[in-house]
Amino acid sequence: AERGFAYAKDSPLDMRMDPTTGFTAADVLNTYAPGELVRILRDYGEERFAQRIVKAVVAAREKEPFTNSGRLVELLYDAVPAATRRTG
Q1: In percent, how much of the chain has pLDDT > 70?
Q2: Cα–Cα distance between 31 and 22 in angstroms, integer?
Q3: Whole-angstrom Cα distance, residue 38 to residue 49?
Q4: Sign of the dihedral defined by the CA atoms of residues 70, 75, 78, 79, in that order
Q5: pLDDT, tens only, 9-43
Q6: pTM of the model
Q7: What are phi and psi of 41, to 5 degrees?
Q8: CA torsion angle for 18, 20, 23, 26 (degrees, to 10)?
Q9: Cα(43)–Cα(19) distance, rounded to whole angstroms?
Protein backbone atom coordinates (compact mmCIF):
# COMPACT_ATOMS: atom_id res chain seq x y z
CA ALA A 1 0.00 0.00 0.00
CA GLU A 2 2.87 2.42 0.74
CA ARG A 3 3.90 2.37 -2.93
CA GLY A 4 0.45 2.86 -4.42
CA PHE A 5 -0.36 -0.72 -5.44
CA ALA A 6 -3.41 -1.05 -3.18
CA TYR A 7 -6.85 -0.09 -4.41
CA ALA A 8 -8.44 0.02 -0.97
CA LYS A 9 -6.00 2.53 0.54
CA ASP A 10 -5.18 5.95 -0.88
CA SER A 11 -1.40 6.32 -0.99
CA PRO A 12 1.35 8.02 -3.03
CA LEU A 13 1.30 6.82 -6.63
CA ASP A 14 4.74 5.24 -6.78
CA MET A 15 4.44 1.58 -7.93
CA ARG A 16 8.19 1.06 -8.37
CA MET A 17 9.60 -2.28 -7.30
CA ASP A 18 12.83 -0.48 -6.32
CA PRO A 19 11.85 2.92 -4.89
CA THR A 20 15.39 4.26 -5.38
CA THR A 21 15.43 4.13 -9.19
CA GLY A 22 13.29 5.01 -12.18
CA PHE A 23 10.08 6.92 -12.69
CA THR A 24 7.10 6.71 -10.37
CA ALA A 25 3.67 5.79 -11.70
CA ALA A 26 2.69 9.42 -11.11
CA ASP A 27 5.61 10.55 -13.31
CA VAL A 28 4.48 8.22 -16.08
CA LEU A 29 0.81 9.22 -15.90
CA ASN A 30 1.63 12.91 -15.80
CA THR A 31 4.27 13.09 -18.54
CA TYR A 32 4.05 10.25 -21.06
CA ALA A 33 2.41 10.84 -24.42
CA PRO A 34 -1.06 9.33 -24.85
CA GLY A 35 0.14 6.80 -27.44
CA GLU A 36 2.83 5.54 -25.10
CA LEU A 37 0.36 5.20 -22.22
CA VAL A 38 -1.99 3.18 -24.44
CA ARG A 39 0.88 0.93 -25.50
CA ILE A 40 1.93 0.33 -21.89
CA LEU A 41 -1.59 -0.52 -20.75
CA ARG A 42 -2.18 -2.85 -23.70
CA ASP A 43 1.22 -4.56 -23.78
CA TYR A 44 1.91 -4.90 -20.06
CA GLY A 45 -1.56 -4.74 -18.57
CA GLU A 46 -3.48 -6.48 -21.35
CA GLU A 47 -6.09 -3.77 -20.81
CA ARG A 48 -8.79 -3.78 -23.47
CA PHE A 49 -10.06 -0.35 -22.39
CA ALA A 50 -6.61 1.25 -22.66
CA GLN A 51 -7.70 3.93 -25.11
CA ARG A 52 -10.66 4.95 -22.97
CA ILE A 53 -8.57 5.01 -19.79
CA VAL A 54 -5.81 7.09 -21.38
CA LYS A 55 -8.31 9.59 -22.74
CA ALA A 56 -9.59 10.06 -19.18
CA VAL A 57 -6.04 10.28 -17.76
CA VAL A 58 -5.02 12.96 -20.25
CA ALA A 59 -8.12 15.05 -19.53
CA ALA A 60 -7.66 14.70 -15.76
CA ARG A 61 -3.94 15.47 -15.73
CA GLU A 62 -4.56 18.74 -17.58
CA LYS A 63 -6.60 19.90 -14.59
CA GLU A 64 -4.35 18.50 -11.85
CA PRO A 65 -1.35 16.13 -11.86
CA PHE A 66 -1.79 12.64 -10.44
CA THR A 67 -0.17 12.14 -7.04
CA ASN A 68 -2.12 9.40 -5.27
CA SER A 69 -3.69 6.03 -5.98
CA GLY A 70 -7.18 7.05 -4.82
CA ARG A 71 -7.59 9.50 -7.67
CA LEU A 72 -6.44 6.89 -10.18
CA VAL A 73 -8.88 4.33 -8.76
CA GLU A 74 -11.74 6.82 -9.14
CA LEU A 75 -10.72 7.53 -12.74
CA LEU A 76 -10.56 3.82 -13.56
CA TYR A 77 -13.95 3.23 -11.97
CA ASP A 78 -15.45 5.93 -14.18
CA ALA A 79 -13.57 4.91 -17.34
CA VAL A 80 -14.27 1.17 -17.32
CA PRO A 81 -17.85 0.14 -18.21
CA ALA A 82 -19.99 -1.06 -15.31
CA ALA A 83 -20.61 -4.48 -16.86
CA THR A 84 -16.87 -5.12 -17.04
CA ARG A 85 -16.32 -3.94 -13.47
CA ARG A 86 -18.89 -6.47 -12.26
CA THR A 87 -17.25 -9.37 -14.04
CA GLY A 88 -13.66 -8.40 -13.26
Answers
A1: 92
A2: 14
A3: 9
A4: negative
A5: 888 888 888 888 999 999 999 999 999 999 999 99
A6: 0.85
A7: -65, -40
A8: 90
A9: 23
